[in-house]
UniProtKB/TrEMBL annotation:
Belongs to the bacterial ribosomal protein bS1 family. PANTHER family: 30S RIBOSOMAL PROTEIN S1, SMALL RIBOSOMAL SUBUNIT PROTEIN BS1C. This is 30S ribosomal protein S1. Keywords: Repeat, Ribonucleoprotein, Ribosomal protein, RNA-binding. Transmembrane segments: none annotated.
Length: 561
């Protein structure tokens, strides 16, 4: 029984000694290089254990391994013994564990770490941080896109840790953050030596549509396209090229954002200082069209001085067309100076003022009564528009189309494109209006026919037609209509059928309407007028004489004469 107890105690002590002396797998242990052969280092890690490590695990990227027999190193113990009875160890894993401890401290303290780019992967590069491998995104390599990363490979340089996860083995670093920090320090120093209004030399680094970035020696300033020259610059590459050295003036410095605004035109004299002396009101100058908009065209009078020809000042006749149909970009034109506002740097120009007013010319060459010939351009509800010379139109009103027909009826005889003749009746230059008349070229048969006929006159007409409502009569070729109620004084005699075509009938003129070209006639009015006249001459209603006696006396008196 005692012997059995002693044996159990011995086994327990032996097991305990093994647990104490043998290092735990997955830990970092110290060892000594006892030999180097076949590209491997043989390392004694104690506890009667030896292992082999490839020499490349002792080298930094791009460098040769520096290790010799007798050197003490730390290695990672994967397994105590493999099939050959050797310990499975790794210098690389040991370095990784060591590196992770060091990197976690640096990450917590937001310190920079040294590393070397040694490989390219999708989306970026791999970086050796002294045993731990990190990912460097392509966007974090430099402050600007890098086309060729070759010069950066294998070079030891500082990085900033952006993110790390030891459990997943992920580390993300940035080289750009280091450069931006250094750049910010450099910018602050350069900006501190600059002042607004200072003239400096710079190198054009980049050109965009809105301007150019100029390097002032470590800090970039923006030279906006509007500050490059007093004249209009459509694109900066018209006057600048990348790499060119230019002299610029510091216009503004923003101390907070470190933004610098630059100017080139500020180093030249302002052409607007002498605009009023060079371009007097009413003077005509030759200019070049630089830009066309919906509301007009800009014309350059000289470098840096542009004026606007408003669409309303472009043509005497083309009122509702786009300016691009009148002038074209780069075209040279003569313009008149209409207005100058030096405070707002504006010049108003006129294009049509350099040409004679076509209505004035027409008035001089076509006095009232002149016969013209033109094409019908448009037909409206109130008349015809006739195309005349110099792109102007004249209008023939409905009332001036025909002597014989109503205007509404006469206009139906015309179509667009018809060539017609007309007479000039009025030219209003101020209102740009020309009145024409077609009927003025013909004879006014109505006026000729009724010449001397006045209201109250008695005329002899010829019956041309008999209708239920009255009779149609003719006088000197002019037709008129006498209504049934005007055919006689007595109702019993107001019968159209008592007349025959060809009868001569005396009627009294009740109206002369030159607009409708009609005579108002009435037999009844004539009879009443004659009766009244007879009563006045041969009796009165109080004399006791009958109407028949009076009329008889009137007729007898007429016969005596």
């Amino acid at each position: 029984m005692c012997a059995k107890a002693t044996m159990e105690e011995f086994e327990a002590l032996l097991k305990e000694s093994f647990e104490i002396d043998t290092p735990e797998e997955g830990s970092v242990v110290k060892g000594k290089v006892i030999a180097i052969e076949a590209g491997q280092a043989i390392i004694d890690v104690g506890y009667k254990m030896e292992g082999r490590v490839d020499l490349k695990e002792f080298a930094n990227p791009g460098e040769q391994a520096e290790i010799a027999v007798g050197d003490e190193v730390e290695v990672y113990l994967d397994r105590v013994e493999n099939v050959r009875g050797e310990a499975v160890i790794s210098r690389e894993k040991a370095r990784r564990e060591e590196a992770w401890d060091r990197l976690e401290k640096a990450y917590a303290a937001e310190e920079r770490v040294d590393g070397a780019i040694f490989g390219r992967v999708k989306g970026g590069f791999t970086v050796d941080l002294g045993g731990a491998v990190a990912f460097l995104p392509g966007s974090q390599v430099d402050v600007r896109p890098v086309r060729d990363a070759g010069p950066l490979m294998g070079m030891k340089q500082p990085f900033q840790i952006l993110k790390m996860d030891r459990r997943r083995g992920n580390i993300v670093v940035s080289r750009r953050a280091i450069l931006e920090e250094s750049r910010a320090e450099q910018r602050a120093e350069v900006i501190g030596n600059l002042s607004e209004g200072q003239t400096v030399d710079g190198v054009v680094k980049n050109i965009t549509e809105y301007g150019a970035f100029v390097d002032l020696g470590g800090v970039d300033g923006l030279l906006h396209v509007t500050d490059m020259a007093w004249r209009r610059v459509n694109h900066p590459n018209e006057i600048l090229s990348i790499g060119e050295t230019v002299k610029v003036q510091v216009i503004k410095i923003n101390k907070e954002t470190h933004r610098i605004s630059l100017g080139m035109k500020q180093l030249q004299s302002d052409p607007w200082d002498s605009v009023e002396q060079k371009f007097a009101l009413g003077s005509v100058h030759k200019g070049r069209v630089t830009n066309i908009t919906d509301y007009g065209a800009f014309v350059e009078l000289e470098a840096g001085v542009e004026g606007l020809v408003h669409v309303s000042e472009m043509s005497w006749t083309k009122k509702n067309v786009h300016p691009g149909k009148i002038v074209s970009t780069s075209q040279e034109v003569d313009v008149m100076v209409l207005e100058i506002d030096t405070a707002k740097r504006r010049v108003s120009l006129g294009l049509k003022q350099t040409m004679r007013n076509p209505w004035e010319v027409f008035s001089e060459t076509h006095p009232v009564g002149t016969e013209i010939e033109g094409e019908v351009k448009n037909i409206t509800e109130f008349g015809l528009f006739i195309g005349l010379e110099n792109d102007i139109d004249g209008m023939v009103h409905l009332s001036d189309l025909s002597w014989e027909q109503r205007g509404e009826d006469a206009i139906q005889n015309y179509r667009k494109g018809d060539v017609v003749k007309a007479a000039v009746t009025e030219v209003d230059v101020e209102k740009e209006r020309i009145s024409l008349s077609v009927k003025a070229l013909g004879e006014d048969t109505f006026s000729d026919a009724v010449d001397g006929v006045k209201r109250g006159s008695v005329i002899t007409t010829t019956v041309t037609a008999i209708e239920d409502g009255g009779i149609e009569v003719e006088y000197n070729g002019m037709k008129s209509f006498i209504r049934r109620s005007d055919l006689a004084r007595d109702r019993a005699d107001q019968r159209p059928e008592r007349f025959q075509v060809g009868d001569h009938v005396d009627a009294r003129v009740t109206n002369v309407d030159s607009k409708t070209r009609r005579l108002g006639l009435s037999i009844k009015a004539r009879e009443i007028a004659e009766e009244k006249e007879a009563v006045e001459q041969y009796g009165s209603s109080d004399s006791g004489a009958s109407l028949g006696d009076i009329l008889g006396a009137a007729l007898k008196g007429s016969g005596d004469k």
